[in-house]
Amino acid sequence: METAIEVRDLVIERGKRRVLHGLSCTIPAGSVTGLLGPSGSGKTTLMRALVGVQVVKSGSVTVLGEPAGSKALRHQIGYLTQAPSVYADLTVRENARYFASLYKGLSPADADTAVERVGLGDATKQLVGSLSGGQKARASLACALVSRPTVLILDEPTVGQDPVLRDDLWQQFRAMAAAGTTVLVSSHVMDEAGRCDRLLLIREGRLIADDTPDAIRAATGTTDLEDAFLHLIRAKETS
Amino acid sequence: MNPRILASTTRRILTQLRHDRRTVALLLVVPVLLLALLYFMYKDIPVLFDHIGLIMLGIFPFVIMFLITSIAMLRERTNGTLERLLTTPMGKLDLLFGYGIAFGVAAAIQASVAAGVAYWLLDLDTAGSPGLVIAIAIANAVLGVALGLFCSAFARTEFQAVQFMPVVVVTQILLCGLFVARDQMAGWLQAISRALPMTYAVEALQEVGVHAEATTRLWRDFGIVAGCVVVALVLAAATLRRRTT
Questions:
Q1: Residue of A17, A101, A148 to mutate when probing chain B, most B C-beta within 10 A
Q2: Could you report the per-residue pLDDT of A22-37, keeping only the tens digit for each?
Q3: Which among A54, A66, B21, B138 is most buried, taking Cβ atoms within 10 Å?
């Protein structure tokens, strides 16, 4: 399978604290990869490094054959930050249309489609500041989807969403991957892990597993991914 | 810079402003109220109002645009939109010039309303043309925007951002020649005054006050203010880091 993202010996420090300790992994193109780990494990820091906004101490990050953050990549990457990063004093539609306008060849109609896709079709004229937390997160997601990126980096996209909507969003991620998009989704809840093609389990800035959900279950002799995660942590601690 | 992105960013910032009706009202009304206050303070000495009111037409937009820009840019940083924008094809100058143009447009409306009221209702009298006064006021407002964009790079919180106002703005107001004529200041104060950009905007306004035609000194001062705007915007771009810790 073709590689979309390659991370080699990535070391990142924030202040005096080392957040990532020489992390290496590869993410195949056209797949949904789950980045799982507890809060504070380094998920967001790794994602920031992939989109090229994180100061890196050492190591390399290559996305679609280019160094992360390079100019050519900015047309091809979609990034959803963990906290909704949209303008509270603009409407949903104005936000989506603004982010669409930053990319060549996108029309206001493309922006409206992205808003429909996240289920905000009936709130297009509402100011983002007046929306609920889950709706704000979806408005932010629409702005990441609008450019139809080749690589989509989503930091906890389904937190606080209603189960039906969550299911709908996951089906969309799967459909995008089937069409060739590389999707990386972070989560701290294990029940979403089973929907991924591959999983990266991260804890305290180190990768403790990088495999398919089935392989992880099989290797740890568990049927449940939560148990598998525990098993892997305990195995690390005793070794 | 990309004309399409610059234009849509300018439009986005103006749309944000338009949604905030109270801010728009404050932008238009506050300078007028302050000018009216000055008018009544100097009711018996209209010569002084002609002098001080004229300078205030340049100072108000500068102060207000500096504050608004500092906060707007800080909001871009703290709500994550800046981080997201820096992962898109947008260039740093698209964002900075977008702010410069959008708030420059707001300042143009503000300065026109304030100057209109000053000339027609408050009997402001200048030897030169009101058009020049408005042009200098707009240039000074854009200077405020540029300095606000630059200073916001050094603030992590709103508390810090507003502290730059006394440092950057009040110093310039004190030393621009409004309180003490510049040639009556001590040598070292004159030197500082010469190094501060608003000094030249105020001098340009004073030139309009006493000369019927635009003088070479006025154009020189105008050029200096415009040059400082460009320098501040370039410095702001240099301090705007794509990668942060």
A1: A101
A2: 999 999 999 999 999 8
A3: A54
